[in-house]
Amino acid sequence: MNHYNIAQAKAQFSELVQRALAGEDVVIARDNRPLLRLVPLQAARGSPRQPGSAKGLIKSIAPDFDAPLDDFAPYR
């Protein structure tokens, strides 16, 4: 794990981004205390979402699902 102080991170930001994208653990520190870790978003989320991946999981929907709610009658 490589630590970089804030000034180094500012000066070498593009290089640190490339290192993080390559899988390297990049930690930015202040006063030799780790503040944050630079990680790619894809790795933070896990696997990418797939359209239609929940197909078949909803078994039934009430027939009046789209009906107006009685509580909102004064606003109609």
Short description:
Helices cover 26% and strands 20% of the residues.
How is this structure best described in words?
The protein has helices at 6-11, 13-21, 41-45, and strands at 2-5, 26-30, 33-38. The protein has a three-stranded mixed sheet with strand order 1-2-3. Helices cover 26% and strands 20% of the residues. It is α+β, with helices and mostly antiparallel strands. The model has no long low-confidence stretch (mean pLDDT 88). A hairpin with a 2-residue loop joins β2 and β3 (33-38). The longest helix is centred in the first third of the chain and has 9 residues, at 13-21. The protein has a domain at 1-41: 3-Layer(aba) Sandwich (YefM-like fold).
CATH structural fold name of the domain at 1-41: YefM-like fold
Strand ordering within the main sheet:
1-2-3
Q: How many strands in all?
A: 3
Level-2 CATH architecture of the domain at 1-41 = 3-Layer(aba) Sandwich
Based on CA inertia axes, which overall geometry fits?
Answer: elongated
What's the CATH H-level homologous superfamily of the domain at 1-41?
YefM-like domain
Query: How far is it from the N-terminal to the C-terminal residue, by CA?
Result: 60 Å
CATH class membership of the domain at 1-41 = Alpha Beta
In terms of structural class, how would the helical and strand content be classed?
alpha+beta
Q: Provide the succession of SSEs.
A: EHHEEH
How confident is the prediction overall: mean pLDDT? 88
Q: Tally the helices.
A: 3
**Alpha-carbon Rg, integer:** 24 Å
- Helicity range of the residues? 25-40%
Which residues sit in consecutive blocks of at least 5 with pLDDT less than 50?
A: none
Largest sheet: 3 strands, mixed
Strand content: 15-25%
